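Hi V.,

Quick status before I head out on leave. The structure for the redesign project is tokenized and pasted below; the design run finished overnight.
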């Protein structure tokens, strides 16, 4: 696949992505924002955290996407008794040879589903998140590179507190996107009822290959980002850190603003979103469309904000409404 990017190539890529989304739609009814968030992760090589109440097809969506991409897939069900070795692997003593051999863990796959990631203790979370950041794992004295592409798609249930270990903010920051999932509307739930009740889950056919994914990421990097768009991204991020300088009187509501990872994430996901729309350049609407998913887990609110029932999403919306669009 040619990695140069012109309008024809961009349109072809957008068509391929739409084909992949349509294939996933055979199984996952509605939930288009969730599927698009997962595709943004695939196109940028960034990890995605899905948050929603049980029964909203989070696990099904990830499994379906792995089938559409025709790649290595492993689901890890996180539980309180899980150990780091259960994730990354360990060394095993072979009595017959008197030597230790390495047994690689389930993290050595292209797509890893960390199901209910907040149910495992801190050591296990850290083992996975280190692999996410470094893209390598050390077992014994040997360091192993993880496969390329490597993507962690994690789910968590926001309403349950019993037996959970909330991810520290510094670790949540390693997720490119945090996608919140809501209930389907009535027509979508009717379609779920008619399609799924008492029937086997439809099978999807592979549309993309891991090799194509790597090339698509190179195409994302070739999407043009104008200087004015770069300034707009910086204005949004800096408004989370110093809202008063942006003319916003919401400083007491923000505990900590977004990290530099947010700046990079906004730029890269905006490029990917433009490519999904068949464009070779980023427009402000691309930035605005991904801003909540990029910033909601990087803007930490104060107790005062919680008392006023203001969430990080509310603050991001205020900033988007106030910062001038180029």
């Amino acid at each position: 696949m040619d990695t140069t990017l012109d309008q024809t190539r961009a349109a072809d890529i957008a068509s391929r992505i739409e084909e992949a989304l349509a294939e996933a739609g055979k199984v996952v009814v509605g939930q288009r924002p969730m599927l698009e968030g997962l595709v943004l992760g695939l196109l940028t090589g960034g990890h995605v955290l899905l948050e929603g109440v049980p029964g909203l097809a989070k696990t099904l969506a990830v499994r379906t996407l792995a089938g559409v991409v025709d790649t290595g897939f492993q689901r890890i069900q996180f539980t309180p008794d899980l150990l780091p070795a259960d994730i990354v692997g360990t060394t095993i003593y072979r009595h017959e040879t008197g030597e230790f051999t390495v047994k690689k863990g389930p993290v050595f796959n292209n797509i890893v589903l960390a199901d209910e990631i907040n149910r495992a203790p801190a050591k296990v979370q850290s083992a996975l998140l280190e692999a996410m950041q470094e893209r390598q794992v050390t077992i014994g004295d040997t360091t192993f590179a993880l496969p390329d592409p490597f993507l962690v798609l994690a789910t968590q249930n926001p309403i349950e507190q019993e037996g959970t270990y909330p991810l520290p903010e510094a670790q949540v920051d390693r997720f490119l996107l945090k996608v919140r999932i809501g209930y389907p509307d009535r027509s979508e739930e009717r379609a779920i009822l008619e399609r799924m009740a008492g029937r086997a889950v439809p099978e999807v056919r592979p549309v993309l290959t891991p090799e194509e994914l790597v090339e698509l990421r190179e195409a994302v990097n070739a999407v043009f980002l104008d200087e004015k768009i770069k300034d707009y991204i910086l204005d949004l991020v800096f408004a989370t850190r110093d809202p008063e300088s942006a003319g916003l009187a919401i400083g007491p509501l923000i505990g900590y603003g977004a990290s530099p990872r947010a700046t990079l994430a906004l730029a890269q996901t905006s490029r990917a979103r433009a490519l999904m729309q068949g464009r070779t350049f980023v427009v402000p609407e691309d930035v605005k469309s991904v801003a909540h998913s990029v910033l909601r887990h990087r803007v930490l609110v104060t107790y005062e904000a919680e008392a006023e029932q203001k969430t990080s999403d509310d603050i991001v919306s205020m900033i988007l409404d106030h910062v001038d669009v180029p």
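Above is the designed sequence. The mean pLDDT is 86.

G. will cover questions while I'm gone.

Best,
W.
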